[in-house]
Every structure is written in structure tokens, then in C-alpha cells.
Amino acid sequence: MRSIVDIAREHPRVIFLLITNGLLLDEALIAKLTRLRNVVPVLSIEGNQAETDERRGRGVHDRLREKMEQLRQAGIFFSLSMTVTRSNFETVTDTEFLENAVQAGCKLFFHMEYTPIRAGTEEWVITDEQRESMKELVASFRARFPALFIAVPWDEEEQGGCLASGRGFVHISATGDLEPCPFAPYSDTNILAVPLRDARAHGSCGSCGRIMVCSPKPRAGARCGRTGKRSRRSSRGRPADAFLSFFVPCYPLHGAI
Predict the structure, then answer these.
(1) 16: which strand partners?
(2) pTM
(3) Among 126, 167, 247, 252, which residue's Cβ finds the most Cβ atoms within 10 Å?
């Protein structure tokens, strides 16, 4: 069976953001990635060791640091993705934390506001004060560091609202489910059974109303298009067989990374 890396090789004008906890990012895969400039490894990290290991398991932070060094030595453009919560906000927006990551080779940062997808995690949601300060913080990071910073949903506001559901990208879970985005883990289509081109034109992802729900000026009566089944996730909101999931931008790549 072809891997997602094989598929990415066949479509060099599409950027594939490979989202991973790094545990299976071995030397063989890293060697393949050196020849695939349209695949960007995105390492999920929650901050320093305490925050990362608390959410993702003991020892994960140290392994992620090892993977960052391996990617840096291989000359691979890689990214860090941080789910911004009330408790880790100060860490993931700390200039020393970001400077250390830049020195470790990271050239792209994602700050993703936590959206509760299961009961009991409402206390993870950032405060109004934190939310209001984020846009100014990100602007200061862009001025200070030689790296790219993407903050969701703050940057989406300038693009007319949510870019999910094929408006800007789609999300493919670790089990192959095609989803509007990681925070809307609902799907009626799996790319193991249906080609991606057909899957995008089919079912809830292609017709999801989430775009209008999340836009700065929602359409009256719009609702999230959660018409499919809920994707198989673990109790903590991550894919049950967590290793890789993919953001697939829904537009061609103009120029190399």
C-alpha cells in the first residue's frame, strides 16, 4: 500500500503538513523527507517539558527535542504546533521559549486556540484577556524572529473567517477520515476507500456550514455541517492511533519552501 509520503511525492505543487507527535519519525522517514520539499513535518508540542508530558505522556518532550535536532541536521524545514490553552498560554507566548525553538531549527510556528470537542475540557479555553492579546503578541514575534508565525483563528479573521472544509484546507486524521478540521472531528468519508479528489466533493466536508459559523460575520441560521459520524479519537481528543495526520491545503503551491 502506498504511504502518504508516496502520494506527496506525486503532487509536488501541494504542501502537505505532516502533523506528528514524532514518536515514529525515524531515520528512514527523515531520509525520505530530505527529498520532499513539499512535506513539512509539524511537531505537536505543548510548551516546556511539564506541559508537553502532562498532555502527551512522560518522555514525549525529550523525544521531540531529539527529533528537532535530527530534522535540523538533515536540513529539513520543520514546524512546531502548539495548542494554546489557558494553562500553557504564558509558556507558548514566551519569547525565550520561542527563541530556543528558533535556535533549534524551527522556522514555522502554529499557535492554535484550543476549541473544546469533549465535555470536561472547558477550563482549557483561554480567557478573553488572553485572546485579545494574542494578535499583538504574534505581530511582535514576526518582527523579532526569523520565522513564520500562523495563529488560528486570529489570522483567519483577515481572510474572511474559518478556512476549514476545503475553503483553505482539509484535515485527514490518522485513521484516514476526511474532516473539516481537527476541532470538528466528524466525517462520512475515508480516503482509504475514496480518492481525495472524490472525497472533497462528497458529504459533510464539501458542504460544511462551519465556514460561515466561524467567520467574523456568520450567515444567519448557519450551522456546523456535522452530518457524518464522529471520527475515531482517543478519550483525550487525539487520534486513537496517533502518529500522523495531515492538513492538505486546497490550492496549488506557488514556489518552493
Answers:
(1) 39
(2) 0.74
(3) 247
